[in-house]
Amino acid sequence: MATDYDTPRKTDDDVNEDSIEELKARRNEKTTSAVDVDEFDQAESLELPGADLSNEELSVRVLPRQADEFTCMSCFLVHHRSQLAAEKDGNPICRDCAA
C-alpha cells in the first residue's frame, strides 16, 4: 500500500475519534496491488535479437592475461593462479570447474 508522507499524521486522539462507519468503509475499500509501469520505458530498454550494433563503441578497457593468471580450459575464464585446482591433460582447470 502506498504511503503519502506529505499528509499530516494523525495523533492518538484523532485515531480514537474515527467513527465506526469510517473504519468500516476503509476496510471495505479495495486496494490494488498493480504497479504502474510505463510501457515506453520498458520497451526502450528491450534489445531485439539481430539488432544492428555496428556503430556502437565499447567503453571497456581490456587487459592482456597477466603472468600470475591462467585460462581455464573448461569454462575459458581467466583466473588468478590461486584458483588453479588441477591440470587435466596438461590443461589448467579452475576450482569451480573441478568441483
TrEMBL record:
InterPro entries: DUF4193. It holds the Pfam family DUF4193. It comes from the Bacteria. Residues 23-51 are annotated as: Disordered. This is dUTPase. It comes from Actinacidiphila rubida.
